[in-house]
Amino acid sequence: MWNFSFTGRVLDIDGKKLKVWEQLTEFLDFELGQRRVLTRVINMENNLQSLLRICYELDPEDFDFDDSAEAGFAEELAEEHYCHEVQLTAILGERGLGPEYYHHETQFQEE
């Protein structure tokens, strides 16, 4: 049982409609105040399957951040982790040691 299930949702990533076929994992990172999810998706145009990694920030008030500076530091650290993960995935994919990296993007939700 997931805290938030992406299964069945259609996401627009890089101009492509991807339908979440199955949610594989969900991890709540208390230190960074974010949730990370791994899903299996289907491209609705060509039926190709892919893995999609989703990271999203949660309300900082729900975590043990002492002040806004600490929350800002956690946000910067989360961004660094994200960038390193993208770089590592691309390198491993290029060398045939993991899935082929396709694309990443950042989306913002209005408050």
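The record above closes out task 2.4. Task 2.5 opens with a second protein, given below.
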Amino acid sequence: MEKQWSWPSLSTIEAHERDSKTSTEKFHLNPREAFLILGKDGADLRDLSIKYNAHIEYQQNPLALLATGPTGSLKKLAAHIEHLRATMSEEIFEVPMHESIQSHVLRRISRISGAFTQDFGPGKIRVSFNGSDPRAAGIARRLSARAVSEGSYANKPQLFFHLPPSVASSSPVPVATTYPNIYSLYPFLSPRDLPWTAGASGVFRLRRVEEWFGTGASENLNKTGGLVMGRGHTITLQQQDVDLRELLRVQPAPGTSRTVVASVGHVLLTSPPAQQMNIVPPLSGNFKLPQLLEWMTGRPKPALFIPSVPLSVLEAQPSHHQMLHRLVYHAVGGDDSRNTIKVELDLQEPFHSTCWLGQSAKLDMMIPDRPADIQFTIFDSRVLDSPQYPPMIEDYITSLRSFLSYQVREATQPETPLTFEHEGLTYVLHSNSSVRQNTQQLEATDTPSLQVVTESVLDLDADQKSTSCQVICNDLDSEDTWKSFMSVCDEITTATAPVMSTPAQDSTPIE
């Protein structure tokens, strides 16, 4: 009868009834299983619940999934979890220079890459990933190396302060003891995500305490003369007065040409990592500058620079547009970490590439009397001919050109070189990005040695976007060029409010 009428058998009916009954089952997990099964920040938990028609609760102590639903669905869920466990892979990655990576940075790497990273002893991390997603392990490796490169980069930015003139420049009294204004740390809300290595629960900018509805809330360039007139003071953390132009004109390395880039943005101080945002500054109250400098001298954590684009530059008409793929490598180990290799590939045919070899240095200049600060980057470099490229870079550029031009239909996107040797030094990847660059035409940039560019940058590993405005100067010896350089810096740091530029999603990513 069952065969003739195609009725289900009694055993099938009984099995269906058993599977339809509601039951509860607990699946115990270890940390890597919990991360890989639940996905980034638990994003896959809801999908699992919908797919298997069960209510799934994540329990932290001990780590487990508590699932409630039809027995049949729970059996399928159990099979899915066992399959994921069976296909999980892991590898041990030796970090360059055998440096350790802070736990909050490892957690950030895990969330970005989708691979679970753990400290595995001195100079090693364990990378666990789903076998179906080996790319996640590659991203975790690159981010780990980049974290070490940034953390051990000996050429960390030096910190300076610019103060408008308050006494006659010929006064023998130290400026730090005569400057009358008071300052405080104010919470800062960035329109973009903070750098993924920041690991801060809050960021704060040093600003002058003023009556915000008055006319003296910001530096008046007509009275002070700004940077271009040179009447103000640039001082160090040790309260020493220095000459900004001489700082930027330090003797360049032999056989190189010097480029100085002024990036507008904000130099920020950070609070320690925490689970929740914090708007209480690490130093509360109002202080004269000497007290602040003394406090900052004892801080082990360096300041953080966040680039931005002022309104005056956004409204300027771009004269040139370019799409680039950019790689930056830093040498690791001792004083050699100033050595830098920068590679740029034009993303328009014929995909021309340029490789610079040189040394770089950064200077952060806080300007608490203005809406924005400046970071100066000094790059002494020479352009390498194609045969002089590091072999791994040359192979990567060749493979990438082939991929972008569809010369080989089956070609896959090459993986960015993580580390390589060149002229006896070990270089580690520092940044891997896609860049949309516009050259802006401003009134003060009519000299050929000066240009203003805005960049929308997509970090291809961390999947973070940022925007920046840069003033590029190639001739500090010319008096006219220097004055134009400082004039533009005055303009971009005294705009009423730095704003976000056009979102970078139309940057042509490599990936």
